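pasting for the record
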Amino acid sequence: MQRVFLPRHFLASGLLILIVASFYVFFEAQRLKQEFLHQTENKGAALAEAMETSVRNAIVGNALLEDLIEQRLLDNARLIDQLLLSRRVDEALLKQVSAMNRLQKIDLLDEQGQPWELSALPTMITRKTEEKLFQSRQHTISYMWGKRWRLPGEKAGNRDAELPSRIKKSEFWKGSAIGVAVGAHSFPGIIAIHANADYILNFEKEIGVQRQIQELGRQPETEFVAFLDSNLNVVAHTDPKRIGRQEKESVVLRAKVDRQLLSQIVDSSGGKQYLEVVKPVVLDESNLGFLQIGLSLGPMEVAWRNSLHAIVILGLAILGAGILGMAAIFHNQHSHLQEVKALEIEVLHRERLSALGSMAAAVAHEVRNPLNAISMGLQRLKVEFSPIDDRNEYSHLTELILGEVRRLNFIVEQFLSLARPVEIKPEALPLQEILKELAALEESQARQSNVQIKVIAAPTLPALNADPNHLTQVLLNLMLNGLQAMPQGGTLTLEAKVSDNNFQISVTDTGSGIPPENLSRIFDPYFTTKSQGSGLGLAISRRIIEAHGGTITAVNGSRGGCRFEIFLPLKRIEM
């Protein structure tokens, strides 16, 4: 049994395709977004790796530079101490030493943290013995301030040396960027050397961490770059205002604990999102600090939206193609089912014709012999016997009976035509002339019914390859039906033309038409609406046309009447 797909099946299939396309767009969009995010993370990691080397080298360079400066300042302090021991030193000499060694200033501080008077030096020198204990304790002091960078393994003793409390309270180091203090041998106190740090700071500005970070921060897609020390204090930042602050973001805290590269998406105060990458800067397995890089997700979002747009278009294309494909499948299936249904009807029709033909052959055989006997007996009665009275009535009666016998014989012949195959003897026929001859043949009968016969056929029509007797039989039958359908008069039109490689012959009347419920049955054997009809004329006509390889149909006109259309294959005959 053929399964019929209804419109709801098509709608369900379209909905399924829509769901599949939607899932495809959704998951593909998510996959692309994760891929773009992964690419941004890889970019941040690669940037951090490249920056780590530069920052580490800058830190090492700065630390070595500060060590050299410390050593140079210590040498200057010891030189001044030796000068104080060996000769009388005045302010002019200290200023000369300061200028020659590019120092900011030189402080001589006593145990109270107050400036030492140079005039007291001779007295101090003559009392060396009394001050040996103090000098042995005091000259071991070595203190440096302003140093920011410390390499792994470097001791912090110089920075954290214990100064006498009174000296420490004086905060003598304020006002200078870098300097050292050493315990003096020449007097009870310390010698503090303040370095002129302008050239040092300029050097760090040119090659230091801050410059490299600012250079990196100028790259597109970079929100910010920062370097944090091991205590998470901002040492360098693309925004100088943030230098000195302490970072407390979760990803920074986790990076400090895990000691590995970490990243996460962060919402900025302006509502934008950026990818934050934090990477430890390591030297000899010691942590120097952390690189913090913020990468804008704007380019990723733009690329993702463009890709999403393309995916949506592709999804819509898939949806459209799927729906069109389903529509084509349903249309083809519907057409196929219609063809199957038509073939089933045709097979059923042929089976009925075959069964009727077999029955007609049997009936005709049984009826024809008695009809022949009756006909022969009536002919003998008419010739050999002559009644004395009512001779005319006798003659009329015998003629009437013979006429009915002939009518019965004609019906038997029609029965036999259903049983026998139609034998076609095709000839090249001038269709226009045949139609004119048929119109002339039926002209008298048409005139009696007040019917006008029109012939429409171009003289340039090619010859029709058909059996003249059978074609004439079909056309005469159709013309007779048309004349009977117009008892009050009208127009009977015979038309012939070539259409789509077929001969199209139509017989059209202007009668009342065929009831719609009977249109599908008029070619069935024994179906008739006429009181005197046998119902075999159109069935036989259909068999003849199909034997020629053509088709015959009947349709009602939009303004009344009926039109029979015959389509026969076009075969040009070489004359």
